[in-house]
Amino acid sequence: AAGVSKEHAAKKVASYLGIDFAETLGIGDSPADWNFMHLCGYAATVGGDEVLRGQAESKGLGHYFHASSVDDHGFLQILQHFELT
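The structure corresponding to this sequence follows.
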């Protein structure tokens, strides 16, 4: 919808569910995804976008992870890294 971003949606969902952003994981593959990922306490990237990768690294050691592309099971790598499987 016009005027609704991933950031806006993430804030709405977190508020509705009572989730603290410090305990959330944002996953993205392009710099535009940083608009919602910056809210999260943890960030993970899939693929090789260097801009997004640098932004994710700003979360600090232990709070970011870089995975291969989605086609190479990057999402699964992220879940395994953060012990979510």
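The mean pLDDT is 94.
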